[in-house]
């Protein structure tokens, strides 16, 4: 028997709709913790890593809502993310108490920006942020890291953040990133995937093995925050 169910949904966004997928545990009726995930500058919500993580989360008792937003403007992405946030909060079927926001690459920049906005409006809104392959800078352009990390650095002290990045990520210099993390007020944990690229693939390792390792890191960290 499947451990989770998945429904495709349309999230209202201005005069349009965003394609989304709601993944939830099959046997648990009282789901209290939810996660919103979105993709990077390319692809969509069906990017294999997001699907794998969503299914792992739902199998572990969490609700996961992932969505597609093709816009490459960060401000537009954040507005879309906010629409998905409002949609999730309006769901009558579940009694959601805690919401995590996250994504991969540009998607996690949008998540951090939304969390910063929401934390300025009220104290207890976002339970934590999941950053998969945070894009600290374009390849070879490390000088842009301060602008790219502005929202992470602007998060409040009580905000838990998990960053999962590959040691070979050409868009996230490890020394720069670890230096930036030391300056952040928020509670940041970083998991470095050995040999991992920006796409969190590792040469010589089966993709599913890498996905399982990343998913386990995320779920273990989330369980700790939501306890």
Q: Which strands sit side by side, in order, in the main sheet?
A: 1-2-4-3-5-6-7-8
Radius of gyration: 16 Å
Please, what is the CATH homologous superfamily? Alpha/Beta hydrolase fold, catalytic domain
Write the element-wise H/E pattern from the N-terminal end onward. EEEHEHEHEHHEHEH
How much of the residues is beta strand, in percent?
25-35%
Briefly note the CATH topology name: Rossmann fold
Number of domains: 1
- Low-pLDDT segments, ≥5 res: none
User: Tell me, what's the shape?
Assistant: globular
CATH architectural name:
3-Layer(aba) Sandwich
Number of helices: 7
Main structural class: alpha/beta
As an assembly, this protein is single chain
Chart the SSEs and their pairings.
Elements lengths: L3 E10 L2 E10 L7 E6 L9 H12 L3 E5 L6 H17 L7 E7 L1 H16 L6 E5 L12 H4 L1 H4 L6 E7 L7 H10 L3 E7 L13 H20 L1
Parallel strand pairs: 3-4, 3-5, 5-6, 6-7, 7-8
Antiparallel strand pairs: 1-2, 2-4
Helix pairs in contact: 1-7, 2-3
Explain briefly what this protein structure is:
The chain is of the alpha/beta class and 227 residues long.
Would you kindly provide a written description of the structure presented here, covering whatever features stand out?
This is Testis-expressed protein 30 isoform X1. Pfam families: Abhydrolase_11. InterPro entries: AB_hydrolase_fold (IPR029058), KANL3/Tex30_Abhydrolase (IPR046879), NSL3/Tex30 (IPR026555). This protein has 227 residues and is α/β, with parallel strands linked by helices. 37% of the residues lie in helices and 25% in strands. The protein has one domain (4-226): Rossmann fold, CATH 3.40.50.1820. The protein has helices at residues 48-59, 74-90, 106-121, 145-148, 150-153, 174-183, 207-226; strands at 4-13, 16-25, 33-38, 63-67, 98-104, 128-132, 160-166, 187-193. It has an eight-stranded mixed β-sheet with strand order 1-2-4-3-5-6-7-8, with helices on both faces. Strand 1 and strand 2 form a beta hairpin. Helix 1 (48-59) packs across helix 7 (207-226) and helix 2 (74-90) packs across helix 3. The chain is globular.
């Amino acid at each position: 028997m499947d451990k989770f169910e998945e429904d495709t949904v349309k999230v209202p966004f201005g005069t349009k709709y965003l394609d989304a997928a709601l993944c939830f545990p099959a046997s648990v009726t009282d789901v209290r913790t939810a996660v919103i995930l979105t993709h990077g500058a390319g692809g969509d919500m069906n990017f294999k890593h997001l699907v794998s993580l969503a299914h792992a989360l739902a199998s572990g008792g969490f609700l996961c809502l992932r969505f597609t937003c093709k816009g490459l403007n960060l401000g537009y992405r954040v507005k879309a993310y906010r629409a998905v946030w409002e949609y999730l909060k309006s769901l009558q079927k579940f009694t959601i108490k805690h919401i995590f926001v996250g994504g991969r690459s540009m998607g996690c920049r949008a998540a951090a920006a939304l969390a910063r906005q929401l934390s300025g409006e009220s104290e207890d809104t976002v339970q934590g942020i999941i950053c998969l392959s945070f894009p600290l800078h374009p390849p070879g352009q490390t000088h842009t890291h301060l602008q790219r990390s502005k929202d992470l650095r602007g998060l409040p002290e009580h905000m838990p953040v998990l960053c999962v990045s590959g040691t070979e990520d050409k868009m996230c210099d490890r020394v720069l990133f670890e230096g930036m993390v030391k300056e952040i007020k928020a509670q940041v944990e970083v998991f470095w995937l050995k040999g991992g690229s920006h796409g969190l693939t590792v040469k010589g390792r089966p993709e599913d093995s890498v996905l399982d390792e990343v998913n386990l890191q995320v779920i273990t960290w989330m369980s700790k925050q939501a306890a």
